[in-house]
Each structure stands twice: as structure tokens, then as C-alpha cells.
Amino acid sequence: MSSRTTLSRFLIEQTRAHQTPAELRFLIEVVGRACKVINYHIGKGELGGALGNQGTENVQGEMQKKLDVISNEILLEANEWGGHLAGMASEEMEKPYQIPGCFPKGSYLLVFDPLDGSSNIDINVSVGTIFSVLSCPERADICGILEDEDFLQPGVKQVAAGYAIYGPQTMLVLTLGNGVKGFTLDSEMGSFVLTHDNMTIPEASAEFGINMSNMRHWEEPVQRYVNEMLAGKEGPLGKDYNMRWTASMVADIHRILVRGGVFMYPWDRRMDKDKGKLRLMYEANPMAMIVEQAGGAATNGRIRIMDVRPEKLHERVPVFMGSKQEVERITKYHKEKA
Ligand SMILES: O=P(O)(O)OC[C@H]1O[C@](O)(COP(=O)(O)O)[C@@H](O)[C@@H]1O
Ligand SMILES: [Mg+2]
Ligand SMILES: [Mg+2]
């Protein structure tokens, strides 16, 4: 009997250890399978005609990549008939996706960013898929249409969160609320195998990730924080910091789960008040749950991201997440300025 723990076996063990409902287990399995299919299309690249623009815009006014649309369809198709979902919402769709038919639906809502890091697709840099699982509010009418409001639950309500990273290795990183696990895709077996048993983020770090080209637009607390790091050991922090930015949130957060650091996408003067670039429901919330479950912290500069009350399905939020000490420092600088 192989001692390697596949995703399926891990989920069964979770059911025994933590009473994880069979429906949730099935949901994670289906999402895992969909990510394997997405991985196949990404791996084919131009051979499969999957690179380049789709020629359409999504609800955020962003030019969609072909793989944004392909990945979205793969996740919808895989999850539509399983009976485990009441509905879905995606970065690439303005409104929630209704599970067709009049019959009792599943207990869960799946919210996802089908392809994260889209600007990196055509240059062969790691991209990912991010997902968040919520419970579906009680519904009288089984034929009832799902409204945006059904999804607008704060991050603390998530029952699971995860991401797939399509890089030199393809991995699935997952939390069900008791720690963070990483599974590597064994392409021969076609299974995700547990390789990172208890991913944790060191409290202290000397590495940060931010798009530096936006510096002139940032608020004072962010300018101060980044300048102090750039000042290195001669500066007030007394240590040298390294900088990394891949422009794929999944890849930047994965780096932090493996070796620590802080990831930032702050508000800047070009944006709507108190908003950011990254989306609360399918980027910030799932990543915040994973980061906190790994011992890190995640705020919008002022409060815990998972305490933010969502108002809109595609709303944006400033993001500071990673090693606790660094996130606490940048949050303190914002509070001092408030
Ligand atoms: O291009 P910028 O400003 O560096 O922004 C990069 C950020 O935008 C994103 O690509 C947005 O995500 P999508 O690709 O899913 O739209 C993040 O993954 C990444 O952190
Ligand atoms: Mg994204
Ligand atoms: Mg995306």
C-alpha cells in the first residue's frame, strides 16, 4: 500500500478527523479535477491555440484572455451537475451562475478566479486558479434564483479556500479551517499527492512583494513602510530586505507560504475611495483564509480582510498579507495616519 497520501485519501481522513461533510469533500475533489483540466490547456499553450486575447471584456472592463474564458467554462461544467452546489460566482461573470433545474440544490456556493495572473499567460510565467467555498443561505424556493446577496458573506464565513498554481510543478494548496496543505500533481498517476503537510508562514521576514511602479500614487503609510525596507540595515528597521513581484497573486502568495514575506496591493490615488485592485470575494478572502491558517495575517491596511462586509460581488479591496510582524507594522502605520 503506497504511503503517499492522495487528495482523495486526505479528504476521507478529514471526514474522520473533523467530520468534513461528504458534500464538501466531493466539491473539493471536483475543483481539483477541473484544475487538472485547466493545467492541461495551460500546458498546451499555443499548441492548443489557447494563448492570446479572447477579444471580449469582463465585468471589470478588463480584456479577457482565451484561458480566462476556457478556465471559467471548465470550472462551470465540472461543478454544474454534481449536486453539491447551489450556485457559483466568478471573476469572469457579472452575475451568479444558477444551477439549472427545480430540485433541492447543494449546500455550498463556489466563488472563483478561474485564472489568476492573466498578464503572465502569454509570457509563460506561473498563473493560478483561486477558489472560496461558502455555505448557501437557507432557501424556501428550490427553484429560486440566487442573488448577489446570497454570496455577500464576510471571509470569516468561508468553509474552505484554496488555489492551484500552474508553474514548474502544478500544485493545489488547500485549507478546510485546520491548517494548510499542499498537494503536487503527479502527472503519471494523474493525482494530487500530499507533499507539503503543514504549510506555515514565519512571523518575521525580510522579503516584500509590491508593484513598485505605482509608488508615486501610494498613501503616506505605504510610502513610509516601503522606504524603510529599502533603507536596509542602515535604516530604522536595521535589516536588508529583498523584493520580488511576479504579477500573479497566486505565485506571490505561494512564495510567502514557502519562505515568508509580505504581499501588498495597496489603494492608490487613481482608484475609487478605499478600494484596491484585487477582488475581495475571489482573491483577497480565500488568500486571507489560507494565510491566516498558515499563521500569517491579512488586512486591508485597517481591519482584518476576513472581517470586511462585502457590498458587491466584484468589489475590490486593498491587500496586505503574509508574515505577521510585517502586516502588523504596515497596519500600525495606517492607524497612526488615520
Ligand atoms: O499588473 P499588476 O499591477 O502588477 O497587478 C498584478 C496583479 O493583478 C492580478 O493579475 C489580477 O488577477 P487576474 O489576473 O485574475 O485579473 C494578480 O494576480 C496580480 O497580483
Ligand atoms: Mg486574479
Ligand atoms: Mg483572473
TrEMBL record:
It comes from the Bacteria. Its main location: cytoplasm. Mg(2+) 1 binds at residues 91, 113, 115. It holds the Pfam family FBPase. InterPro entries: FBPase_C_dom, FBPase_class-1, FBPase_N, FBPtase. Keywords: Carbohydrate metabolism, Cytoplasm, Hydrolase, Magnesium, Metal-binding. GO terms for molecular function: fructose 1,6-bisphosphate 1-phosphatase activity; magnesium ion binding. GO terms for biological process: fructose 1,6-bisphosphate metabolic process; fructose 6-phosphate metabolic process; fructose metabolic process; gluconeogenesis; sucrose biosynthetic process. Residues 201-335 form the Fructose-1-6-bisphosphatase class 1 C-terminal domain. Pathway: Carbohydrate biosynthesis. Residues 6-196 form the Fructose-1-6-bisphosphatase class I N-terminal domain. It is an enzyme of class 3 (hydrolase). Its EC number is 3.1.3.11. It catalyses: beta-D-fructose 1,6-bisphosphate + H2O = beta-D-fructose 6-phosphate + phosphate. Substrate binds at residues 116-119, 211, 277. The keyword Amino-acid biosynthesis does not apply. Mg(2+) 2 binds at residues 113, 116, 283. Belongs to the FBPase class 1 family. Homotetramer. This is Fructose-1,6-bisphosphatase class 1. The gene is fbp.
